[in-house]
Design a protein that fits this description.
With 443 residues, this protein is mostly helical. It has helices at 13-21, 31-53, 55-62, 70-84, 86-100, 102-122, 126-129, 132-162, 168-196, 199-204, 209-225, 240-250, 252-273, 275-281, 287-315, 317-341, 345-372, 379-409, 414-432. The two termini are 14 Å apart.
Length: 443
């Protein structure tokens, strides 16, 4: 696909000229700027996913529902609530980034995530303040989801637009790699706390420690994001509604196929995050070992996202998107059969590692493909919508769906079958999208 087919059709000549004249970084983004973008992104994802790692204890604190799976189901449902404000964040903050620039949008998302995290860390238990506790927790999850829904579009667009020629895949892959970093840090906290605290201490107050830790780092993230370069200065003449309308009217195909592409990444990632709960609740493994699976997943995500970015630049987007999805689709059921048949440290860590590595590779490839197929004037909004809708509709329901399926069927293979289905759909979606490695992203 050439660059002309990517430009929005039917725009007035003046608007097209204005868009072409908008400043774009002319030199490669500095390592310091990459670190600034990655650090803020990692912190935001850390705040969001740490909830999943301690869902068992959060459920007992805020949702005193009876039954073996009762409070856990409500807790993971509340985890999913945070995904449903992501599309709203994608619309509002993504459009803001296309109108005002990437940098102010990225500063705004860190500020929003701060409020949500503070609320989660400080809210008293249900036993202390009654129904107000779960209400506050749900509100904080909604606010965190709003922030993350608007984070991915501007951050990825900045990395993509400022990358040197032939390196867009690698630079954009730091978006997924930073998520792996967040998972790894969260896993480290989980292992450490599980080793030094008793179950009673974890349930009473220990799960709050990782949230409090992130609050110390947030001012640093705000400070370093102020040093980011600006890669796009949008025209103030366009409203957010016009930008969003342009995405839906002129780029509907990329939007729909991008969501389906993102679905497999969202489901596989959340199954990986769910491994802690799965190991404790279903496999009856020690909490410290279960948290070790998160650490393994984070490390593999960090490393293999970068591998996926490098492969994207060398071999193209399509093959790097499709091959790891096919491998995961064929291997995930045998891996879960092995894990459920012989639960232990080796099986849990190996399965977590393979799942995370393959997911990171095609996740990084998908995250660079979609924005390359969108013009700069709507890139942040379009990618934000794709990512937010895909992760909210599919990722946001994953933990609840697999928990419910396991509770109803008593079949520990439910997560694997769900991953297979979503991988198959995403392979078809990628087949319908063009190769985007050589497109001009400055237009």
């Amino acid at each position: 696909m050439n660059a002309s087919t990517l430009n929005p059709a039917g725009l007035p000549q003046a608007a097209t000229a204005a868009r072409s004249a908008q400043p774009v970084a002319k030199t490669a983004i500095s390592r310091k700027a990459v670190a600034a973008a990655v650090a803020g992104n990692a912190l935001e994802f850390y705040d969001f996913v740490i909830y999943a790692y301690f869902a068992v204890y959060i459920g007992r604190t805020f949702f005193p529902v009876s039954g073996e799976f009762g409070s856990l189901l409500v807790a993971v449902a509340t985890f999913g609530v945070g995904f449903f404000t992501r599309p709203l964040g994608g619309v509002l903050i993504g459009a803001f980034a296309d109108r005002a620039g990437r940098k102010p949008a990225m500063i705004l998302t860190v500020a929003l995530i701060t409020v949500g995290t503070l609320g989660l860390a400080a809210t008293p238990s249900y036993a202390s303040i009654g129904i107000a506790a779960p209400v506050i927790v749900v509100f904080c999850r909604l606010l965190q989801g709003l922030a993350l829904g608007g984070e991915v579009g501007p951050a990825t667009a900045l990395l993509l637009e400022a990358a040197p020629p032939g390196r867009r895949g690698f630079y954009s892959s730091w978006q997924i790699a930073s998520q792996g970093l967040a998972v790894a840090v969260g896993g480290t906290f989980g292992v450490a706390l599980s080793l030094v605290l008793t179950q009673e201490q974890l349930s009473s107050w220990g799960w709050r420690v990782p949230f409090l830790f992130s609050l110390v780092l947030i001012p640093i993230a705000l400070y370093i994001r102020r040093s980011l370069p600006e890669t796009h200065e949008g025209s103030g003449e366009r409203t957010g509604a016009q930008i969003v309308g342009s995405v839906f009217s002129k780029h509907r195909r990329v939007l729909v196929l991008g969501v389906l592409l993102t679905a497999a990444t969202a489901v596989a990632s959340q199954v990986g995050n769910y491994m802690v709960t799965y190991a404790v609740q279903v496999l009856k493994l020690p909490p410290a070992l279960a948290q070790g699976s998160v650490l393994m997943g984070g490390v593999m995500t960090f490393a293999f996202a970068l591998v996926g970015g490098l492969l994207c630049d060398r071999y193209g987007r399509k093959v790097t998107n499709q091959l790891p999805r096919i491998v995961l689709m064929l291997s995930i059921v045998p891996l879960f059969m092995w894990l459920s048949g012989a639960p232990g440290a080796t099986t849990l860590l190996v399965v977590s590692a393979i799942l995370a590595a393959l997911t990171a590779m095609f996740g990084a490839a998908g995250l660079v493909t979609v924005p390359e197929l969108l013009p700069i004037a709507v890139r942040s909004t379009g990618l934000s919508l794709v990512y937010a809708i895909g992760t909210s509709v599919f990722g946001g329901t994953t933990q609840f769906v697999v928990t419910w399926l396991i509770a109803v069927t008593r079949n520990p293979m439910a997560p694997a079958y769900y991953v297979v289905a979503m991988c198959a759909i995403s392979v078809v979606a990628m087949w319908m999208l063009p190769e985007s490695r050589d497109v001009d992203v400055t237009k």
